[in-house]
Every structure is written in structure tokens, then in C-alpha cells.
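Deliverable D4.2, example record:
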Amino acid sequence: MSSSSDQTAQRRLAAVLAADVVGYSDLMSKDEEGTLRRLRDLRRQVIEPRIRSHRGRLVKTIGDGFLCEFSSPIESVRCAVDLQEAVARASSEERSKPLQLRIGINLGDIIIEDDGDIFGDGVNIASRLQKMARPGGICLSGKVHEEVRDKLPYHFEDYGEQRFKNIGRLIRVYCLLAGMDLSAASAEARSTASALDRPSIAVLPFANLSKDPEQEYFADGIVEDIIAALSRFRSFFVIARNSTFVYKERNVSVQQIGRELGVRYVLEGSVRRSGERIRITAQLVDAVSGMHLWAEHYDGVIADVFDLQDQITASVVGSIQPSIRAAEIERSRRKRPENLDAYDLVMRSLPHVWALEFDANKEATRLVSKALLLDPGYPLALSLAAWCRGQRIVYNWSGNVPDDQRETLRLAQAAAAIAGDDPFILTVLGAALTITREYQRAQSMLERALTLDPNSAWAWNRTGWLHNYQDDPEVAIQHFERSLRLSPFDPMAFNCDVGIGCAHFIAKRYDQAALWQEKGLKAKPRAAWIHRTLAPAYALAGDLDNARDRIGELVKEYPEIRISDIRKALAFSREVLDRFAEGLRLAGLPD
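Output generated by the structure prediction step:
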């Protein structure tokens, strides 16, 4: 804005409402004229009259969206609810796919131009909240919630503090779910909305089956710890404790809870005491289908109650993440290709990312690149793109190692710049820094990731490899074992076996090195790169026949590979690389 316009612009505090039509581009591609007519009628008959009735001002319309300002936060929320109810009713009377709005509301300082247009952070945050809202839903900033929470008869779900693009501070977000008399179609959209963005989960109060009042506190403590641990995952929406504890001692179906809270997944459980023994059960349920995704029980003694509580929290959280990930991957596979968004493409890429195979790496790269075309600032997609590049280097697939190193680090740092408090993204940055052999910075990133999420199996895996690279095999083995305990059925579990094998090689226990790497190869037989370190383990253990066989398998996938290529790809110390090279020569691989 020019200095002259600064002199004429006015500032004031206002509630800003931003809204748009969900899936507008898709609707236009199928029926352009009909969609334009429906949107024009909706604005004239529903949207504009209701904005006026709540004493708001329609600032402007932008394609399928519109921007309003209100002097009262209460009126802005009332108007939003009125709009959602009216739009749902109007759309339910049509045979076409119903129109749905997403609405975001923020209270902040705005700049008003001479032509009536408005600008500033107050507007930008409302726009970010609108994009976060579910179809048929409303997202409020913490400032709006503070003004309306005790004055309106609606249920607000606390989504915690969120980081938005180009906003330099965290914004507290609340979403309006219950208390809105929307049509069945809109209610269904809210109940499945988590599948459209990122998975959401509610942890219900655990039932106290022993009827011992003391166990009530223990059960509540477990639930609070699990909620706190899950909240560290930026990839999840975790419903706040105050919202889930209203279901305590109520006989309500999981499907109903899912509809009322707008979540896809529900964790429920129970506590039973018998003498000094205590048993805790937990199960993860898909709130839409009612299908059980995971279940486990834990036994312990009262004397170790706090250790047991920590163990249960770590185990449940470690199991929930891969279980939900698997469910989300399966859901994305069932979607029609033309309906895939950036999130779906990332979910589809994950099995290929974790496969650690050449063809899988190419497919993962294709899917993640497509996701970034749709959303260039999607931190998880940036992070996975970095790791796909990193895999090319580590597994001898790169045609240009220096370029891939630079791009791996650039993408990983770009993701961390957007989501610097996401444990997964910090772990990828730590892994990228090991590839460029910046071990001190890598350690800092991985330690930060584990501080944020002590139950991250992959962060423990990557710290295991970092200790291998720093000639610290005994600690490396401990970290790989910790990763396996946290997530024994994780797709990356075989990588821990290989890592333990390499740790034994570093410690010159060559028989054990071969044993563990064979275990990893058995779990992932197409990962031909394992033969690079398995062959020298056999060779230095004195088993040259097996060593030569492994080199034969290696060159089937890498016909031109030489010892010098392997040395460039691996990040071990020079002394360890020298021993790998010695074993590879004994096995028959040329320098």
C-alpha cells in the first residue's frame, strides 16, 4: 500500500467472517451454468439477507467466496450459524449435489480502504480459519471464542494452537460442531470431515470396571496422558479432554460420538483391578464404520502404577499412529482418482516411501510431487519429498549425489520452516543432515523431535543410525530396540533389524551382524541394498561362499556398482567404511 493510501485508510476492531463454497471447482467442471445459477440464487436469497439481518456488512465477493465484517463477535457467530442452517435447508431441496459453506471468523484490527475493502492480519487469519473449517462447519479464533463462549448456546471444540502460513504466531482455534440444527446431509459431512482433511481422534474416559474410586483417578490420568501425547502429532486433530469427558458413564455408541464430535477415530478402554493386579484394555475404533482397528491389554501391579501408566501411554500412542495411518492409506486408495487432494496423494505415497525400494521410490516421488502442485506449502509433502531424494543417495539410486544432497536438505528445511514443532518433520530434517554428514545439527534436530514426541518410533530409528555413523554401536542398538518396542509392526521395523546388524558390524561382531541383516532382508526381500553391508559381514566372519552369493544378488539390481559407489552412499566413519570395503573386496566386488 502506498503512503498516500496509508493516510486515508482507517483502522478499527471488527469481527471478520470469511466463507467459501466447498468443492466449487468440481461442481463447475460438471455443470458450469447450473452451478453459477445456484450460487447466484444462494447469494441473493440466503447469504445477503442474513448478513443484513445480523447487522453485518458484505465487503466483497471473490469467486465462490465472500468476506463480511461485523461490529459484534456474537452477531458474526449467530450469522454464521444462521447461514449454515439456511444453506443446508436450501440445498436439501435440490436434486443436485448440495452446496456447503466453510466459514472462518476472527476478531482483530482491520484496515478499511476508501472503497470499503478491508485488509490486515484480522482478515488474513479469518481466511486461514475458513480453509481449516469442515464442510458445513465454522472455525473461530480464540479471540472470538473468548467473546461468545458464555453467551451463545453452542458447543465449541478446542483444536488447540495452530500455525498458519504467513502468520507469525500460533492461533488458538475453536470449531463449532454441536448445537447446529443442520440437515442430515450436512451432519453426515461433519461426521466424515476428518477424512477430508487430516484424521481426528477422540479419547474417551476409560471405564472403571473394578468400581474402586482410586482406580477412577488412575484411569483418568491415563486418558489425559494419551490425549497430551497424541496432541503432539500435528497430523492429527485431537479432541480436547473437556469435550470427551462429557461422555463419562454414558451409554452412547461410537458412531454417535463420532457424529457429535466430528471425529473419524475413537479410542476407548477400561481398567480392572483384582487384588494387587491391574489390567488395562484399549481399542481403536473407526467411528464411521464401527470397525475395530486395533486392540491391546496391559497387565501390571499396583506398586508400579506410575511406571505402568507411562508404559501404557507409550504403547498406545505408538500403536495408534501406524493403525490410523494404515486406515487413512486404505481410505485414500478407495477414492476415485479425480477426487484426490494433496492429503490423499500423500497418504497414497506413504507405503511407497517406507518400502525403501527403487520402483517404490519413483512412485512415491510422483505422488508427492503431484501433492505439492496442489499445495506447494504442505509441510508433510515437502518433508516426504526430501526423504525420497535422500533415499536416492543412501540406497545408491542417485545419478547426481551433490544435487540430490542439496535438494534433500532444501526441502527438509522448507518443511521445518513451516512446521518446526512437528516431530516427524524434524526427524526428516535430522535424517537429511546425516546424509550431508552434519552430525551435530542432526543430533540437535532428532533430540528436539524426541522431546516433542518421546514415542516416535521413527525418530528412535534415526537416532539409532546417527549413533552408528558416530561409532557408538551399543547406544545405537538400544535406540533401535526402543523403536521396535514402540511400533513392532511398523513398515520400517526391518530397517531397525538392518541397523542393529550394522551396529554389530561396527563392534566387529560379524556373525551377529550377518544374522540381524538376514532378518531384515527376510522381512523386505526386494530391498537389494541390504546386500551391500550383509556381504562384507559374511566375508569378515569367514563365510566367503555366502558373501559371494550376496554380491551376486546385489549386482542383479546394481549391475555397474563399485565399492567406491557404496562408500559415497554410506555415512559411516572412515574406519568402518574401510572394513566394509575390505569385506566387499573379499566377496568379489571391484573397487
